[in-house]
Amino acid sequence: MAHDPGHIELHDPETDPLATYVLEPDDVRPLLRRVVSSPGAGTTTSHAPFTGSPIAAIPLSTPDDVARAAKNARAAQRLWAARPLRDRTAVLSRVHDLVLERQSDVLDLIQLESGKARVSAFEEVCDIALVARHYASRAGRYLAPRRVPGLLPGLTSVRVLRHPVGVVGIVAPWNFPLTLTLGDVLPALVAGNAVLLRPDPQTSLTSLWAAELLEEAGLPDGLLQVVVGDGPTVGAAVVQHVDHVSFTGSTRTGRVVAAQAGERLVPATLELGGKNPMYVAEDVDVEVAAEGAVRACFVGAGQVCVSIERIYVHEDVADEFTAAFVRRTREVRLGSGLDYRSDMGSLTSAAQLATVVEHVEDAIGHGATVLAGGVHRTDLGPWFYEPTILTDVPAEARLGREETFGPVVSLYRVASDDEAVAAMNDSDLGLNASIWTADTRRGAAIAARVRAGTVNVNEGYAATWGSVAAPQGGVGASGIGSRHGREGLWETTRVQTVAVQRGAHGVLGGPGVGLHRLFDLGTDTWPRVYTEVLRTMKRLRLP
Ligand code: NAD
């Protein structure tokens, strides 16, 4: 059929060959109007991974549009920051309710744009509800002025304040269209900032839907500006106009963005790639660990920054675990239905498929063995690839060290916890890790030795990611800074120290006791007096 932009038909060959899902042009047009662009703007066409068919022609922003969006955001931010915090948290609280209420709309959109299974899309809805609720209830505490000990106890009163930075720029990838946009927009807004958001062009409709949701939740005009365009032009323009950059993407692009932000001396939070390991200890129930591994490796077709790509299994259970893992992997249901009947969807793009195929072929060329999968499923859609397990992957294979970002995992045997920890830490990347053991105390102790921003014991990734009160971020080449929790909120604030020196103008009609008095003691006396003061303070165990 000829495709009207914004009209797509999706067939679900697995469940019903005649099933048709349609995204009506009228649903899409109001969303497209939210892009900051100029009359006569060019367009970019996104394609549905399930079919390869065009979804919508989305207007493109130019660097001038980005500058205009930033200016408008800046004007709106001043008023927003002056509003009481409860007005800001009220918006988040309503977002929580609305995203749960409207979930079926956004689940469809996320699936259409990313090609993921509905169950993975639902994780994004849950994430937004968790983040919105958390910051709605905790932002006040996180942003409250903090009293700290002053220079002269009793005389110097010090408070540390947190102010919004101004305009936060968010440059997001395509793999979590809702989580990695709205999930970062919410804390930035509640801190009193405006946001300039550049979603990936492949998944911008979901972001535009989120902008609509925020408006309905009561967000004043102008505070969220959405621009669309490629990374090197529009993404880079965002970096040029904001006071803080939140970038999520590959380590390679993260270095470019960090350099651009560094040039402007604006801070950047960088959430980058991973080559995340899992360790399966010898005391596990192998069926439980295998089930956990399937989800941890193949969620979102492995296009999840925190998903697992390397598994180290204790040799005592290696055969048993491998058999269970392979069996369960072969049972994973692939499909393109906009329902909960499939476990795994498609890869999101031809480029992503090409990387997966290249990594698997390169590993096989280096002597690796395929235990499950390794098949491009053109019968299901253009970019479906079976969940794949490899073993005997040598160190020279690209798959051994580089992030694949697909449904591919390699298995290795280890003889001890020490060997497992050494192997897990043998990477420049350090985003997420997972440990499976029946002894949770042992698991926690191993976890603390792993060089990764998050470590899950008896879970793949959801326990840390979903515990939104705790920071989530990588170490080493996996990034700088974090999202979630107090730390995540603080990323988009600047600190200010205000010290009030008491008694400068006299105490009870007597002489002043301000710092100037100390300096007034004369060049000989004040060093002697202050030396005694310092000694006394230590004796009194003052902080
Ligand atoms: P990518 O780095 O190629 O692109 C990410 C985004 O950056 C894209 O939208 C791209 O258009 C944009 N971009 C490209 N050049 C740019 C530039 N010069 N300035 C500004 N923006 C630019 O990554 P990708 O392949 O699209 O995304 C997958 C990667 O993201 C994986 O490495 C994955 O691990 C990582 N990721 C990390 C997290 C995390 O929280 N740590 C979460 C999701 C994805």
- The unreliable regions are 1-8, 16-20
> Taking strands numbered 1, 2, ... along the chain, how are they ordered across the largest sheet?
14-15-16-13-12-18-19
Q: Which CATH-level-2 architecture of the largest domain?
A: 3-Layer(aba) Sandwich
- The radius of gyration over CA amounts to 26 Å
Number of strands: 22
Distance linking N and C termini: 74 Å
Number of contiguous helices: 19
What does it look like?
This is succinate-semialdehyde dehydrogenase (NADP(+)). Residues 42-498 form the Aldehyde dehydrogenase domain. By secondary structure, the chain is of the alpha/beta class. It folds into three domains: 25-272 and 487-494, Aldehyde Dehydrogenase, Chain A, domain 1 (3-Layer(aba) Sandwich); 276-467, Aldehyde Dehydrogenase, Chain A, domain 2; 504-536, no CATH class. The chain is built from 19 helices and 22 strands. The strands form six sheets. The protein has a seven-stranded mixed β-sheet, sandwiched between helices. Strands 9-8-7-10-11-21 form a six-stranded mixed β-sheet, with helices on both faces. Strands 5-6-22 form a three-stranded antiparallel β-sheet, with no helix packed on it. α9 links the parallel β10 (244-248) and β11. α2 packs parallel to α8, α4 packs across α5 (118-143) and α10 crosses α11. The longest helix has 26 residues, at 118-143. The radius of gyration is 26 Å and the shape is globular. It starts with 8 loop residues before the first strand and ends with a helix. 50% of the residues are buried. The structure holds nicotinamide-adenine-dinucleotide (NAD). Nicotinamide-adenine-dinucleotide binds next to α8 and α9.
